[in-house]
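A common beginner's mistake is to predict each chain separately and then try to dock the pieces by hand. The better habit, illustrated here, is to supply every component at once so that their relative placement is modeled jointly.
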Amino acid sequence: MAKKHDIPQHCNDCSSRTEGIFCGVDSEALNDLSCHKITNVYKKGQTLFVEGNPPYGLYCISKGNIKVTKMGLDGKENIVRLATDGDVLGHRSIFTNQFYSATAIALEDTIVCFLDKKYILKVVQNQPSVASHLIEKLGRDLGACEKKVASISQKSVFERVAELLLLLKESHGTETEIGWKIQLKLTREEMASFIGTATETLIRCISELKEEGVVTQEGKNIIITNEEKLLEFARLSY
Amino acid sequence: MAPMKKKANILSLTEIEVEKIKDFGELNHYSKEEMLIYKGHVPKVSFVFLDGKMELQRNYESLLVENFCIVGLHELVEELPFKYSLKIFPGSKCIVLNKSSLVEIKNIQGGLGSVLANFPLV
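With all components supplied together, the output reads:
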């Protein structure tokens, strides 16, 4: 969990330095970025930006986890994306000149760097590597969205739960003696909203996976003990 | 000046000064309630409040920000933590001044530049 003393003073000191859209910039540009960025620690539950409000700039996650949510007509919050170390948020609204299409909320204490709109547009123009990494990121995000849409329409809830656990294992998994421990603390409700199902249904599916010996639980953390079988259950095409 | 307003480094501007600032900042309309600055955070941008409802909050204290007041400017320039939380309510509008805009304002001759010269480095 991020603490105030973990705040990197310079972009070079950032633990996510080699990830994200700024990984290819030269040292001079990085010094300039470091002078312009504003870094804060967002506590769990604090919002970075709100759906429907105007954008100010780009948010770069140095350390921690953010959930990106959209409000349904029923007033329920649905997680559309999870962002972690090295990810950027708020970029689409800047380039499309539209209001934020979702709300970003810290899942835990998270170090976030902010770069204002004017500055980031200038950087994208002057640093081709930033532009190309941004395009790459947009491409990957679009691919992930298409996959999610296909999953919701083509897969059963059980398969979607299995797929979600594999996704979380990729982004937040740590290998332990008994399997892959998912380090991200999401409530069952949040997990359910991410895959578009009811909390009770998700809980039932996880229980079934436990009975199959595919997953186990250590406190609130889920551990994947049989990844091969989980892949079968998820019916992934790779 | 009320103690809370003074502690929060809020500067009141005239209508003419606000009109000049509009050229450098961005006019924003808020449709949702939002915490613009959290207590203890360095402001990402500063806000010139125009209309609607904007509130400073700390523990059990709260203060409504008056129209044509600039909030968060000193802390943004000096990279200091803001002593209050700042909340904006639906239907409000304000001008947003970011770091890049402040550099532009700093470079203009007299007029607006001299007004903002009360704050260091601006």
